[in-house]
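Checklist before submission:
- one chain only
- standard amino acids only
- sequence pasted in full

Submission:
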Amino acid sequence: MEAKAKLFGHPVHQMMVALPLGLLIGAWIADVAFFATGKAVLAGVAYWNTIGGIVTGLFAAVFGLIDWIAVPIGTRAKRVGMWHAGLNVLMLSLFTGSLLIRHFVPTHTPTFAAFLSATVGLAISTVSGWLGGELVNRLGIGISSKVDLDAPSSLSEGR
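Returned file contents:
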């Protein structure tokens, strides 16, 4: 099934998910580095990466919703997509909780609760990412109807 939200022939949702995941993983790594070194700048990196990850995650979700609405009701893809979306909402909620906890701490340093919330969110994103892969690689969501090992570039379509 082809994606409904596309840019230059490619699914926008699939392009967008790398940014929030990268930012949120980077935030978690910066927290670990902060705990290891005590350098406040790393807490700031984690704080701002978390904000960026949440904002871009919400942006990516809009395009995922557009594609999910087009999936036929009663299919496995619809159910897997619902779990994928639900876990992403939970993951973003956990990172938002982490952000709110650290927002009121001087220099936005992570507390144990903020770090635990982000860690659980990261673990959930792993499961959700696997489900996203299941949607694309196994169920063919977002795959062009013109799929072929020698298909022309999506930029050359219509010429």
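Reviewer check: Residues 6-143 form one domain.
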